[in-house]
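Please check the following for our workbook:

***
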Amino acid sequence: MLIGTQSDGDGNNLAIFNTFQPLGSSPPIFSVLIRPLDQSRHTYENMKTQKEWTVNFIRPEWVKAAHQTSRHLPKKESEFDSEVLMHEAKVGISAPFVKEAPIQMHFTWLREIAIPENGTRLVLGQLRQLWTKIDLDLDQRLDFEKFPVLSSWGLSHYTHGKEVTAI
């Protein structure tokens, strides 16, 4: 997933994460695992101060551009400066979206849980809104075969969502 945040100085940030998990549906709560704070983590800092962020699903054709958001850029530089990943604003939401993302989600901060064993932090957010460009099937489920998205299998390995088996 690509997480979009906004800094105090109105700068946009975009970073790839492979540790995004649902924790429950009523209310809809998801978690994001933040690596140790042994260096500046712009996404985490922005999530914590602004109390909101976006999650944007990745399309296969821009996986390389999405993966490049894992680089550590100076805080004033935006990953949206890429020609592939275009910024989209939505009324009433300060965090940026990826314009061409097939699924876009808006979250607000609930809390964080420190994990002292490895220095990571689990950030919990509540889903506020969801937008989709993927067709729904007759049961109102997302049809990932018609519009594949990627999921991550480690630091630099990805798979198409259409290869996931639904039961």
